[in-house]
Design brief:
This protein is mostly helical. It has four helices and two strands, in the order ααααββ.
Length: 162
C-alpha cells in the first residue's frame, strides 16, 4: 500500500476510534437521563460537543486526503474514485473501514436524535405542567426576589423522580 493510502487508512481508523468514544459518551448521557442525574449533565454534553468538534476536524482531514489521492478532475472527497484506483486487499480493507465508519456514524446520529426528541418532549411536558399549575404567570418564571427571569427549561429541576 502506498503512503497516501496508508495515511487514508490511518485517518479512517482514527475516525472509527473517535466514533466509539462518542458512542460511549452518548451512553453516559443516556444513563444520566435515565437516573435523572442532572448535576453533571452539562459537563457530559460539553464533552460530547468537544468530541463532535474533534470528529469534524478528522472528517475534514479524511476528505482532504481522499481528494488529494483521488486525482485531478474528481469531486473533492470522492471516496469511490479513490477506491477505483486500488486493487485487491487494499480496496477491500478501505471499503470495509469506510462502510463500518458510515454504519457507526448513522447509529450514533440515531441515538442522538432519539435522545434529543425525548428531552424536547420532557421539556414540553414540564412547561405544560407549569402553565397549567400557574396560569397567572403566563409562562413566566420568577426568582426568589420576585424578578421575572427568562424561561430556560434546561436548568429547571422540579424533583429527581418526575
Amino acid at each position: 500500500m502506498q503512503d497516501g493510502y496508508r495515511e487514508f487508512r490511518v485517518v479512517l481508523e482514527g475516525e472509527l476510534a473517535l466514533v466509539e468514544r462518542i458512542r460511549e459518551a452518548q451512553e453516559q448521557v443516556r444513563a444520566a437521563v435515565r437516573r435523572r442525574d442532572w448535576a453533571d449533565f452539562e459537563a457530559l454534553l460539553d464533552r460530547m460537543r468537544g468530541l463532535g468538534a474533534d470528529f469534524e476536524a478528522l472528517d475534514r482531514e479524511r476528505e482532504a486526503v481522499c481528494a488529494r489521492l483521488a486525482g485531478e478532475g474528481r469531486p473533492e472527497g470522492d471516496f469511490y474514485a479513490l477506491l477505483s484506483r486500488l486493487e485487491g486487499e487494499d480496496r477491500a480493507v478501505l471499503a470495509a473501514l469506510y462502510r463500518e465508519l458510515k454504519f457507526r456514524v448513522r447509529k450514533v446520529r440515531l441515538g442522538n436524535d432519539s435522545l434529543a426528541h425525548y428531552l424536547t418532549e420532557a421539556q414540553a411536558l414540564v412547561k405544560g405542567c407549569l402553565d397549567a399549575a400557574f396560569p397567572e404567570h403566563r409562562g413566566k418564571v420568577y426568582t426568589r426576589q420576585g424578578l421575572a427571569r427568562p424561561v430556560d427549561m434546561r436548568s429547571l429541576v422540579l424533583n429527581r423522580q418526575l
